[in-house]
Structure formats: structure tokens, C-alpha cells
Amino acid sequence: MSKQNPTYTIRGGRELYGSVSVSSAKNAAAAIIPAALLVKGKCSIDNIADISDNKMLFRILRHMGAVVTKRGHDAYDIDCTGVGTHAAVFDEMRRIRASYYLAGALLGRFGRADIALPGGCNFGGPRPIDQHIKGFTAMGAAVDIKNGVLTALAPDGLHSAYIVLDGIPSVGATINIMLAAALTEGLTVIENAAREPHVLDTAQFLNQMGADVRGSGTETIKIRGAARLRGGEHSIIPDQIEAGTYMIAAAATGGEVELTNVITRHLECVSVKLREMGAAVDEYPGEGRVVVRSNGHLRATDVRTLPYPGFPTDMQPQLTAALCIASGTSRVTEGIWEERFRYLDELMKMGAKVRVIGSTATIEGVRSLTGATMKASDLRAGAALVVAGLCARGTTVVEGIEYVERGYEDIVGKLTRLGADITSTKSGAASDAPAEELSAL
């Protein structure tokens, strides 16, 4: 008997009301968990979301000899003192894109890293790690890739360097260089560094462990290598992408939704666009909450994805789903990764009117979408299909939900508590999905 593919079934057209607590940032945990390899001591980390990507990273660390202990609902202790290997070439490495952060951590700790490169999502086109390699090479490592395994070796040890990243600031390269430099003698400087919140959170984690990282959140980051990183405590920031997804869902369906456990400044780009579309967004920075109110009748707007603090590429599919029912003509320009538009074929099954020329999608708003059976090809595209299903007439079936569950903790439960009619056949194999998080490139 064949195993049924897991799905979400959504009966749309229901307004959302209530409050939802936002989980910890997937992209921050993806860097901070591997960063624990640099620490000889116990790292006590709070606010780790119960998602498959984090579970996979814990399994990888345990394979390498780390002791990972759960202290509470979302709290873990990680002790990598006993890790004695610079190699991580087992199969789990290929299932999660953020596993490449082990390269910077292992290179920084041992002067060598052998890691199996992660697989890819159905985005098409290359997803280069050339800026990662550029940074490692500048610090004295020889880097080679053969048969899907990246080997970085610094025979004379790593040394500090002045590194200028090319083109669009690379989040992944910025973090990987920070990790490699944390224990490297001297001052390493990264110019054109990424400024995303999870870069800053990773730097704060390293500093809590005894590192000296300055300038995170700006275009210039300086890392003065420490002799040793000790244990310490850290709490991961809330997930701006999860928060933005629920904000957009509330605006598209109508109703009133309060989001708690948020950092409001991380959400400003989403708040601005939702206000342009006719939703009301009230921010309470001192209380860590945002309230979105909407009658579900949205106006068209234009948006271009950009590095932080611009509108994030990870929010583009969800916003586009809402724009499909916005009155007027919208234009969405993908400034980071234009192949991400492939999910639009699925929205057109629901009656969306979209055409793509180059890196710009033009959306003619329709009165309503109609439920259909669709398949997610990646994490954020899957979230977009959920948003579309929530505001569509009739029943929507979303396949490929293993992608969605890699980045959203208890999405079905949270939406249900807001009044959505969504059920899941539930998968236990979310970690089998290929990796894809483009914002981490």
C-alpha cells in the first residue's frame, strides 16, 4: 500500500480573529545551532521553534559527538566540547540548506571542514556559495568541491583578513565568515555585510559566548578573534517572516489579528505595504505586539524585494498571493531571486491573473480566488498557497506541506485558533524535503 502524501485542506472565505504568538526565527536558529560548535562549554539557548529544520540540525550535532539536551518546551542545552571531528558528510547534511554554516564553524574550530553540500529546491538556476568561498580563501583556507563535498583546509591556520563581499550582500557568507573568524587571531573585517536581523542575532550569540563581534546590523562588521569561547545563555529572536505571513493572511481574509512576541521594527516593511493596500496596522513596540485589521478589500500596490531593511524575498510569495485579490494592477519585482516566481503557476490554477516578464510579475486583481489542488515547491511558496487558500472560495488542497513545516511551527494549530478551517493529514517526514532557503545565500 502506497503512503499518502501529506496535505493541508483549507475551506476558505473565513475571517481571522484572535491572537497568535510568533515562534523563534528559523533563519537565526539555522546559524546559531551550528555556531555552538565553536564553544567548548554549555550553550543554553531559549526560544527554539519546534520545526523540522531545527530537529535536523540537532541530529547532525549529535552525530558529531555533541550533547544536546532539551530543558523545556523551547529551551535546549548544547555542549560541543566532545566534538572531535571536522567532517560532516552524512546524509542528513544534504536535506537542509543551513547545514553549510557548519563549514564556517568547523573551519574556525579545527582549521578544516569537510561537509556534504545540501540539496536544492525546485527554484531552477544556480545558488552559488562563491562569496562563502571567497571569505574562507581570504582567511587562508584552500577550498575544493568534489562529488558534492566541500573541503576547506587552512594548513597554516586561519588568519584575519579584510573581505569585501560582491554584489547583493550575502547573509550566508556574512555569517559563515563571522563563524570562521570568531576564534581566528587578529581583526577580520567584512565590508558590504548583510544586515538582516538573524545576522545581528548570530553576532549577539557569539558575543554572549565570549566573542568580539562589532558592527553587526551595519555594512561593516569587525571580528576580533578570541582565544576561546565559553558557555553562556542566549534567546533567539522572533521570526519576522512567520509574523509577516500571519499579518498578510489577516489582511487578505479580513478580520483582526494580534501578533505577540514580535520585534516591530523588523516588520516595518510589511506594515508599510499592508497600509498601502488598505489594512490598518497598529504597532506596540514596547509590548512586542502588532495588530492587523482589515475588511478583506485590498488595493493594489507595487513592491520590490531588497536586502534588509528592504522588503524580504522570503515575504514576496505571501504578499503576491494577497495581491491576487487586490483591486487594481500590482507589480512585484524580485530583486534577489527571480526564479522564485515559479509558484505563480499554482496560483493561476485558482484564477489568479498574473504575467511575468523578466524579474517583474504583473498581477491583475480578481474579485476572488477559487479553491484548487496545488503543490508547494518550497517553504515560502507553500506559505503563499496557504494564504491563497484561506481567502479563496471553496476548498483548497495544498500538497508538499513538508516544506511548510520546515519553517512554521504549528501553523495548522495557530490558524485554527484564529478561526481558519484548515486540517492536515500530518506528516512525520518534513525533514525529507530538499533544502531551499534563498534568503540565507
Question: Which tags fit this structure?
Answer:
four-stranded mixed beta sheet; alpha/beta; UDP-n-acetylglucosamine1-carboxyvinyl-transferase, Chain; 13 helices; 441 residues
The structural class is alpha/beta
Question: In percent, how much strand structure appears in the residues?
Answer: 15-25%
CATH architecture of the largest domain: Alpha-beta prism
The total count of helices amounts to 13
Q: State the separation between the terminal residues, measured CA to CA.
A: 40 Å
Number of strands: 24
- What average pLDDT do the residues reach? 93
Shape: globular
Unreliable stretches (pLDDT < 50, length at least 5) are 120-126, 427-441
Strand order of the largest sheet: 22-23-1-24
Query: Would you give the CATH topology of the largest domain?
Result: UDP-n-acetylglucosamine1-carboxyvinyl-transferase, Chain
Largest sheet: 4 strands, mixed
Total number of domains: 2
Q: Which bin fits the share of residues in helices?
A: 25-40%
Which CATH top level class of the largest domain fits?
A: Alpha Beta
Write the CATH homologous superfamily of the largest domain.
Enolpyruvate transferase domain
Cα-atom radius of gyration: 21 Å
